[in-house]
Every structure is written in C-alpha cells, then in structure tokens.
Amino acid sequence: MAHSLPALDWSLDALAPVLSTEQLDFHYNKHHNTYIVNLNKLLDGTGLEGESLESLITNLAQVPEAKRTAVFNNAAQHFNHSFYWKSLSPKSAGPGPKTIAALTAGFGSVDDFKKQFSEKAVTVFGSGWAWLVKKADGSLAIQQTSNAGCPLTDGNVPLLTFDVWEHASSVDYRNLRAKYCEEIWKIVNWEHIESRV
Predict the structure, then answer these.
(1) Among 27, 49, 172, 197, which is least packed by CB within 10 angstroms?
(2) What's the CA gap between 57 and 101, in Å, rounded?
(3) What local confidence, expressed as pLDDT, does residue 67 receive?
C-alpha cells in the first residue's frame, strides 16, 4: 500500500498567527507531500511498498543498496514531518503532570527545558530538526539531527520536534529562526507529549 499524506488534526488556518495558512499550505501540501511522492516512486517494484516508515528508517538493509540513501531521506522526512504536525496544536494547554515531572527531573524545570531546547533548535547548523526524546533508560534528552536525521536510528522515542529547515518558517519569519522558535512554543501540543512521556 502506498504511503500517503497524513490528515492533520487541525485546519490550515488554525495555527495563525504563529504559522499562517500560506506557510502551512506550502509546508504540508507541497513540501511534505513531495517526500511521499518520491518515496512511493522509489519503493515501486521493490516489494517494500507496504513497509512502515519505522521499518524503512531503521532497517535499511532490506532496501536495494542503490536506493538506500534516497529511501532513508524520503522515509525519514515523511516520518519527521508527520511527527512535527502532531507536535503542534491550536489549543496549547501547557504541560501535564507527567511531562512537568519528567522535564524537571531532566532539565531542572519546564522553563529551563524550553530555554535549552530553543537554543538547540536555533543552533542546528544548516537544515535539520531539534527533538525532545526519551532514551532507552527512560531519561529525556534534547537531540539535534541534520537534514533527514531521525531519532529512531538511535533507538530513541521522539516526544517533540521543531522543524528548523528553512521551508518550515521562511514564509512567515524569513531568516529569523530564533523568532520562529520563540513563537512556536505558543502552539506546542503538550497533550501529545504527555501521552508519550
């Protein structure tokens, strides 16, 4: 079965003014969808059309060698973007009790975590992602990945991500990545984090 663009939990105008309809339309309908189209073309005829994104990302040995890099890049970007949409919500209610406890244990306080996470997001060199992840031992960490890098390859469970590729914010923020990272906290889906922490 071919991979497809996941339905969003909110409308394209729901995250304004932090992210405009134009920004989201460009990012979701055009940019994210291109990774899916490319992935389906790459998988066509390989027998891997029904493989999950997680399987394609973490078990590249099953992919024909000549296609491995391209399949990883497109599968990981599909996964990363799908997770990014889940990380956002027009009704950002603030962190729940499990999240507060985990962030306090890992980073000192919620505010300290936000400061550290924003710094990591702003300082990703070039294109990439900032992640809050849960490691195998249950501890939390902030992870930077470049390009299509994905925490699944390190065995980490993603809890939150900020997309800091230029296309994620250029319509609304131009080259002001720090401003984008400051504003996006207003629409973080803390309920999604609470359900995974």
Answers:
(1) 49
(2) 31
(3) 97
**Angle between helix 110-122 and 97-107 (nearest 10):** 70
Predicted pLDDT at 1: 75
pLDDT score of 91: 92
Amino acid at 91: K
* pTM, full prediction: 0.96
Sheet arrangement for strand 128-134: 140-146, 128-134, 157-163
- The total of structural domains in the chain comes to 2
* Distance, CA of 15 to CA of 7 (rounded, Å): 15
Residues in Cβ contact with 145 at an 8 Å cutoff, skipping those fewer than 6 apart: 124, 128, 129, 131, 151
Two structure tokens written together for 100? 């507060």
Instruction: At 102, give phi and psi (nearest 5°).
Output: -70, -40
125 shares a domain with 79: no
Instruction: Tell me if residue 167 falls in helix, strand or coil.
Output: helix
Which among 86, 115, 140 is the end of a domain? 86
Contact 21, 12 (CB under 8 A): yes
Are both 28 and 65 inside the same structural domain?
A: yes
Element (H, E) at 111: helix 110-122
d(CA 155, CA 158): 10
Using alpha carbons, select from 189, 181, 193, 190 the residue that is nearest to residue 88: 189
Residue ranges of the chain with pLDDT lower than 50? none
Q: CATH number, domain at 35? A: 1.10.287.990
